[in-house]
Task: inverse folding
């Protein structure tokens, strides 16, 4: 599970960590600092797509991507129409990439809206062979699930990246 900072939105309208608040882990990540810095796949003016880093475990669950707004905005209902459309396109692209490159049985997506007060949408696979007892929100708990770190994780991201261009 990813460590999070709790609280509501700061009301900032810029993705600069100093404007949005030093406690926003996603703004810190966008500035290249903090515990969430991870392999970056793609970005435009509205959204950024990256792989979840290994935070509380030694290796990352392979294929767990996160789509974040560039602008510091707390919740789904606060997205502009353009941001909402960009998030949707990025989530669809992420799902296609995960299925094609990682052979996922299923691809799940969720916006939880608690924890880090900066909009982000998770997209992650159910890897082949995952036992049915691991529900959609627990597939990363399967001990035999693919995990990676460092160069291996970078190589996986290199395989996914072309889908976004």
Result:
């Amino acid at each position: 599970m990813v460590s999070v900072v709790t609280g509501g939105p700061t009301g900032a309208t810029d993705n600069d960590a100093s404007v949005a608040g030093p406690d926003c882990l996603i703004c810190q990540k966008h500035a290249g600092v903090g515990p969430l810095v991870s392999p970056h796949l793609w970005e435009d003016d509205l959204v950024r797509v990256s792989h979840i880093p290994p935070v509380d475990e030694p290796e990352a669950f392979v294929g767990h991507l996160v789509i974040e707004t560039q602008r510091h905005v707390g919740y789904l209902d606060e997205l502009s129409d353009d941001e909402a459309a960009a998030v949707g396109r990025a989530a669809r692209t992420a799902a296609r990439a995960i299925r094609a490159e990682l052979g996922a049985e299923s691809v799940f997506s969720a916006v939880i809206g608690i924890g880090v007060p900066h909009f982000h949408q998770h997209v992650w696979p159910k890897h082949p062979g995952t036992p049915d007892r691991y529900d959609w929100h627990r597939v990363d708990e399967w001990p035999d699930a693919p995990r990676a770190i460092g160069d291996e994780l970078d190589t996986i991201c290199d395989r996914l990246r072309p889908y976004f261009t």
User: Anything to note?
Assistant: The first strand starts at residue 40 and ends at 43. The domain at 39-164 is CATH 3.30.428.10 (HIT family, subunit A). Strands lie at 40-43, 47-51, 60-61, 65-69, 106-110, 120-126, 147-148. Residues 81-102 form the longest helix (22 residues).
